[in-house]
Hints:
Distance between the termini: 35 Å
CATH topology: Aminopeptidase
Strand order of the largest sheet: 1-2-3-4-5-7-6
CATH superfamily: Gcn5-related N-acetyltransferase (GNAT)
CATH architecture: 3-Layer(aba) Sandwich
Structural class: alpha+beta
Shape: globular
Number of helices: 7
Oligomer: single chain
Largest sheet: 7 strands, mixed
Strand content: 15-25%
Number of strands: 7
Number of domains: 1
Radius of gyration: 17 Å
Helix content: 25-40%
Amino acid sequence: MSPIHVRRAEDGDVDEVLGIITAAFARDPLWSHALASPDGTTEHHARFWRLFIEGAMPYSWVWVTDGGEAASVWIPPGGTEMNDLQEEELGRLARQLLGEKAARYFELLHSFEAAHPRAEPHYYLSLLATHPEHSGRGIGMELLRTNLAVIDSEGLPAYLESSNPANNRRYESVGFRPIGKFAYAGGGPRVTTMWREARSAPDREPR
């Protein structure tokens, strides 16, 4: 694989990041169920994902490859995925677009929140996606490795939830380990929660 170039996303990159994430998660075994609308369309998915991306942008921890192949959305220690207004908008969208499935969507969000470890400051990988046109080339994992190298330089742990069992081994290959699971009442696979211990920063003594 040719070397990829990774950079922190800027405000002008939001639509590109949104396109990558929306396309990648349209067939995700969990989110294709959780975001299913009564009429079976998927155009509304982008309205949900935009809130997560815009919520993370102020932290400068949204990353994208220069070719638009992959993107990652991180929340740094002490951060939140959304502000109060964005959370209110998310609830409004769910009630408006998901119909009777909105209650299950809220239940799923609660499960994510309840499973999230809080005892130790860490980086949280909210979203990692490779555009389907570029899948199978290892670009998403290379982006993740680049992100983890920065996190390692700070000597901090990382956390994620895997909504696709096919990705679990990939995450394990870069140091994550499963720590728990939870299910979505609306169908799809069980979500695996995964933790990566802090690596000693180069200029620090091992803990």
